[in-house]
Amino acid sequence: MAAIPLALLATANLILGFFYQGLAVVILGPGPGSDAFIASLTVPLFLASVISSALTVVLVPLFGQAWDKNSGGSPAALLWTILMGGLVVSGGVVLGVAAGAAWWLPWSVPGMESAVVLQAVPSTRIQLLALVPHLVALVETAWLYAQRRFLWPEVAALAGQGVGLALLVPGLLAGDTTLAAWAFVVKSGVHAGLLLPGLWCETHGPCWPAWHHPKLHEGLTRLLPLLAGLAVTRFDQVLDRVLLSFTAPGTLSLFHAALLGHGAANQVAYKALTVPLLSRLATLAGEPAGFQRILRQGLRHTLWLSLAAFLATLAVVWVLGGLWRSWVGVSPASPAMSLLAVLFLSLSGVWFAGMLGQTLTAGFYALGDTRTPMKIGLMGFFGVGWVLKIAGLALGGGLGIALAVSVYYSLNALWLYRELRVRLVPPPGAS
């Protein structure tokens, strides 16, 4: 029954997250201004997506195992060591990347006019600062997830989103994208700050870092290759922006808005279905029959829920689209509205194949295998993904890229299914 309120909270968080990124298109309208704001989000969102996925799948089981009396170290010491180490590392990375923003940002959107790119530099630097409290919130959330306390992190995240909107909306309405960018820092700061007091009391305050904690080396061994693999596989987000910068002004914003709905759905499914499933599968890693039964059940639930959610989303988008058209005075038959609708449908492979791929990946992670999903992602991206997207741009512009993304996600999910099936069902005669 806890899955229902968890799904509702996760959905509310993702809806607000959609507004955070989509409001630029709604308020500013598709064009150079919204394109500049979306360009400023590209690298911060890329880095956030990499560390979010990596830390969750590594730290949740790691903290869970640390509670075992035979783990050989204090769970609280492990928590504070990771928090302090993460603060130092993330702070250094953020400062370095932010300092070079004026140099590397033009390379991320080479087809965009230089004046528009320069407009995005200050917003990019501010949004990069949000990565530090974001990492803190991720570690705190993983600690609570390991104890199967899923609701409070969502409540804290929802509060952070609400407070941040108080800066985002006025900033966009005034055309001040710098003020709007601070909303991302405030959002992550409130989220991390609300989770901290509970952990502080639970662990009796910070303790001296235990750099030789037995679980720390194990965690780093899993985390570093996962971060590297995710950085490469998630680089397709950056490649999309690079290619879309060569399309007509406003296409980047509309593509981003269309992709947001699919990405939000995947995150809801990840929090409400994949993370609880990963926790259950991890306890059944030594029981093949039970493991396969729960995994098949998870795939069925994901498939039917994704279909129901997709149909419901189409209805909601139809209603919200009408309100947006009234707000900006756009005709339903306008080129912008038509392109947005076609892009959303063309990206539907991200919705279905993305959710199923997350469920299949959870199966590998529960078996302690973080390398196979990364290998499949890397080979798929370098072997097929970038070729499909470049061909899509040449043949159909933004629409061609959207179709290429759907095909890439579908092929990736099929490959994951094949590899996991071979892993779980040995061929006849195998010992």
Describe the model.
- The protein folds into two domains: 12-228, no CATH class; 235-426, no CATH class.
- The chain is globular.
- The chain has helices at 3-28, 32-66, 75-99, 101-108, 114-129, 131-146, 151-173, 177-202, 214-233, 236-244, 251-283, 288-328, 335-346, 348-366, 371-424.
- Helix 1 runs antiparallel to helix 2 (32-66) and helix 11 runs parallel beside helix 14 (348-366).
- Helices cover 84% and strands 0% of the residues.
- The chain has 431 residues and is mainly α.
- The mean pLDDT is 83.
Average pLDDT figure: 83
Uncertain ranges: none
Strand segment tally: 0
SSE sequence, one letter per element: HHHHHHHHHHHHHHH
Span from first to last CA?
Answer: 40 Å
Q: Give the helix level as a range of percent.
A: over 70%
Overall body shape: globular
- How much of the sequence lies in strands comes to under 5%
Based on CA atoms alone, the radius of gyration comes out at 21 Å
How many domains make up the coordinates?
2
Determine the structural class based on helices, strands and strand pairing: mainly alpha
Main sheet record: none
Count of runs of 4 or more consecutive helical residues: 15
